[in-house]
Design goal:
This protein is mainly alpha-helical. It is 78% helix and 0% strand. It has 11 helices and no strands. The radius of gyration is 19 Å and the shape is globular.
């Protein structure tokens, strides 16, 4: 049972749903859990399932926001008059998300394969977990935290988007690095997370489309993985949806220190496993 593809789908679906939205790196966990337990990778079919699940989670949770942001972009492109101040802020946030998506799209499209090949290792993960954990602590401690998500401008979106591109390196954490950048730009904790999640929508969608394209190019889904595929979608969606809701409530009163500490502990555990493996070899 524990070595079955369905069981792997349950475990990795939970990990994806949790770590995609918490600042602790989904790529690190999805790389390390199979490595620790000696599991074979389930292939592109399951990668698509995980992306679909987390995409559904963020899209459904923020469905009203994404609908309004889409309307605001359309109005802006059509050059319609904006009546009230709330509409004006909404349009700025919408364009901040559009512009913030571009750096990850460009870097991922041009160098994504190279970055994954060069940096996909437990050693790199130890370093990035630790270093960006320090950055998160410093941003949480010294960021002004006096702005809300509706105050975001296109320049903020560009800077946070550039930070998001760095998350292509395993262990950095997409949510972690974008939240760190938002905190440094003065956004409050909860608003930093909210903007990070809104920015995640287009990125997760594009990553999912790329995974679908790669799957199609490889000959289509594996018919033997239909059940794990469905399980992966359901588990990653349910876990991701609950995680988003719980995380935003948590940040109403708490800070990011527990997540930075977790990153340090995880990096230490990985370093120990690497050292033990090296000494035994």
């Amino acid at each position: 049972m524990v070595d079955s593809p369905v069981w792997h789908a349950v475990v990795l679906g939970i990990i994806q749903g949790l770590t995609e939205f918490l600042p602790i790196s989904s790529s690190a966990h999805l790389l390390l859990v199979p490595w620790i337990f000696g599991w074979d990778h389930l292939g592109l079919t399951f990668d698509v399932a995980l992306h679909i699940g987390t995409l559904l989670a963020v899209a459904i949770y923020f469905r009203r926001d994404f609908f309004q942001l889409t309307v605001d972009v359309h109005r802006s492109l059509a050059r319609k008059a904006v009546a009230g101040p709330e509409d004006g802020r909404g349009r700025r946030v919408a364009w901040a998300i559009v512009i913030g998506t571009i750096p990850a799209l460009v870097v991922g499209g041009l160098f994504g394969g190279t970055i994954e090949g060069v940096f996909r290792s437990p050693v790199v993960t130890v370093v990035t977990l630790s270093v960006f954990g320090v950055f998160l602590l410093l941003a949480d401690r010294y960021g002004e935290k006096n702005r809300d998500a509706d105050s975001v401008r296109w320049t903020d979106g560009l800077l946070i988007g550039c930070a998001q591109a760095v998350a292509l390196i395993p262990g950095v954490s997409r949510s972690g690095v974008t939240i760190t950048a938002a905190l440094l730009l003065g956004l409050a904790r909860r608003d930093s997370a909210r903007f990070s999640f809104l920015l995640a929508g287009p990125v997760v969608l594009l990553a999912g489309l790329k995974a679908v394209f790669d799957l199609w190019q490889s000959g289509g889904p594996d018919p033997h993985l239909v059940t794990p595929f469905a399980v992966g979608i359901i588990v990653s969606f349910a876990t991701g949806f609950i995680c988003i809701s719980g995380f935003l409530r948590f940040l109403q009163k708490k800070d990011f220190v527990p997540f930075a500490i977790y990153r340090f502990l995880l990096a230490s555990a990985i370093f120990y496993l690497l050292a033990a493996s090296y000494l035994e070899s």
